[in-house]
Structures are given as C-alpha cells and as structure tokens.
Q: What sequence folds into this?
C-alpha cells in the first residue's frame, strides 16, 4: 500500500523511473533517463533541481507534470497521483517549459484570459485575473500586443503569469532564465521571489548555480538519472568544504603542527610579557637590547607562522564547486 504523503509534502516521489526503449533494430541499449528517483518537496519552498545536460531534470519535470509517462514508480502532487489521475493533477500544476508555448494567434491579455477559461473560470473571473497579473508582471502596457512582438524577458514573464493564473499548488519552472539578458533574469527572479513569499511552492531546474544558491530553500543535484546530493545550499557547501579539508601551501614551509604554533607563540609572548613587579616589552623602561631582542623574536615568529597560517586557508566553496565535485568536469552533449 502506498505511503501517505507527510502533511507538509506537496510533492512526493518514490521509486520514479523512466526508461526509453532501444532504437532502430533493437540492438542498442535502453536509455535510463531517470533511475529510481526519491524526493519530496515541502509546501511553500523553492526547490531546485540541478544537473548537467542529460542528467534527467527535464524528464523528471515531465513526469511530475503529466507530460511524460513514468516506466515505474509513483509521483504525488498535492495529494493526487499524476499517473492515475492526470486530469485532476493538472488543476494543481502550473508549468513554464523551456520552449515558448504562448499562443501566437492571441494577444497578451487573451493568452491569460483563455487559459483561465480553459481551467473552468467564469468569464468575469478570468478577466479579473488577467488584468491583475498584467499589472503584477509589468505587462499592462502590452495587453493588446501580439505575443510575437514581446522581448524574450516579457514573453517569459507572460508564461509565468499564465502558469499561475489558475492558482496551482505547484509552479514548475524548467530553465526559466535560459537565454535571458541580465536585466530580464533579475526581473524574473524578483517575480519568482515575490510569488514564493505569497506562499507559492516552486520547483525549478536551472544551470545558474548562483541563482539556485540565492533563491532555493533546498536543491537536489542530479546526474545520470539519479540524485547525488539533496540538502540546503548552505549545508551542501559546508559538507563539500569538510571533504576538501585545508589547502596546503606549495613550496615547503612549516610543518603545521600544533606544537610548532604553540612554541613560536610562547617565545613571542615570553619576550613581550612583563615580569612580576616590572615592565617589559614595549614599555618605556626597557633598554635598546631588550627592544632589539623583542623585535628579533617578533620577526622570526612572523616569518615562521605566516606561511603556516596561509597554508590553513581554504578555497571558497560555492554551489558551483559542489556541483563540479559531484558531477565531474567533463563536457556533456
């Protein structure tokens, strides 16, 4: 019997797989696009699905949004099995695919209005929702324009507006900022952030690690159809830093032992610490020989300890560092 989703789970994926059959004469191997996937997405979070080309991200989104039929496994969205009841599941799903799917025969406003009507809204409800979203997405001046006159950033904002017009439980964004200029990317992420602050659950795929780091509550890194790591960006970076360990300085240098650090710090402190009942170090009572001794010890301690402390520095760990560590540096087709 399938396990019921936890109360805060809006997406529950268990053993989800997609295997494409052999091509041509059937002599080639099967293509395992997604392999026994397990993940959950909590209500109200932004969840990032990251991975190189061919990792299985788009296939996973396709299965969760009823566009791709799984080979095996279970996918539950807002309590609905997307395979057993795809028509009902679609009411809880908003999708922005990689390709522009706007209706080029309709105006900007009509793309929103007829989307609402398709999902069962009355004419008045769809009209009100379209007007409201055009304002929120800074598209009101383009309401009567044909969509092929929109810039790439405007078209992407319109697709996001259309995807949420019927108030879905989950918004799926597949590479939402691919091909956008920096200004359009920033504008879109501001919209995504605002939607999430209003309670919208979002699952996105992206190649932009800095965006995933900044925007996502949790991320899953995929490769070859499997999840290699799943956690918050901060914990993934922390875990990667621990695995990497300290960076050793090149060209020799001190041994780096705790005993050596203690020895040189003790010698320096002994030189500058005043004895009981008198002053020593940098006070006015020491003579030239004392000052010369202190200076010599300080210089030698700095020369010995400087390279040691430098050798303990670690490279900055970013989400891109984690991504490369897990998936490798090879180019993907």
A:
């Amino acid at each position: 019997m399938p396990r019921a989703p936890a109360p805060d789970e809006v997406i529950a994926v268990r053993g989800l797989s997609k295997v494409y059959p052999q091509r041509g004469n059937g002599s080639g191997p099967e293509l395992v696009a997604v392999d026994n996937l397990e993940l959950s997405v909590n209500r109200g979070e932004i969840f990032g699905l990251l991975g190189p080309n061919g990792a299985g991200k788009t296939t996973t989104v396709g299965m969760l949004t009823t566009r791709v039929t799984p080979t095996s496994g279970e996918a539950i969205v807002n309590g609905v099995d997307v395979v057993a009841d795809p028509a009902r599941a679609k009411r809880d799903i908003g999708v922005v695919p990689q390709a522009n799917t706007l209706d080029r025969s309709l105006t900007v406003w009509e793309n929103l209005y007829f989307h609402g009507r398709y999902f069962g809204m009355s004419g008045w409800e769809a009209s009100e929702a379209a007007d409201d979203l055009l304002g929120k997405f800074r598209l009101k001046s383009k309401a009567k324009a044909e969509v092929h006159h929109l810039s790439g950033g405007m078209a992407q904002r319109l697709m996001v507006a259309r995807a949420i017009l019927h108030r879905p439980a989950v918004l799926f964004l597949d590479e939402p900022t691919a091909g956008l200029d920096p200004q359009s990317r920033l504008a879109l992420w501001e919209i995504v952030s605002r939607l999430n602050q209003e309670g919208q659950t979002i699952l996105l795929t992206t190649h932009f690690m800095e965006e995933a780091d900044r925007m996502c509550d949790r991320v899953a890194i995929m490769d070859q159809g499997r999840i290699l790591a799943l956690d918050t960006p901060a914990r993934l970076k922390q875990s990667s830093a621990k695995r990497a360990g300290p960076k050793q300085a090149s060209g020799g240098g001190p041994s780096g032992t705790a005993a050596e650090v203690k020895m040189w710090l003790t010698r320096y402190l002994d030189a500058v610490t005043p004895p009981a009942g008198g002053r020593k170090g940098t006070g006015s009572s020491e003579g030239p020989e004392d000052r010369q001794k202190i200076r010599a010890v300080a210089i030698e301690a700095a020369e010995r300890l400087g390279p040691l402390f430098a050798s303990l520095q670690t490279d900055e760990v970013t989400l891109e560092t984690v991504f490369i560590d897990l998936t490798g540096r090879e180019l993907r087709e």
About this structure: The longest helix spans residues 288-311. The chain has eleven helices and ten strands.
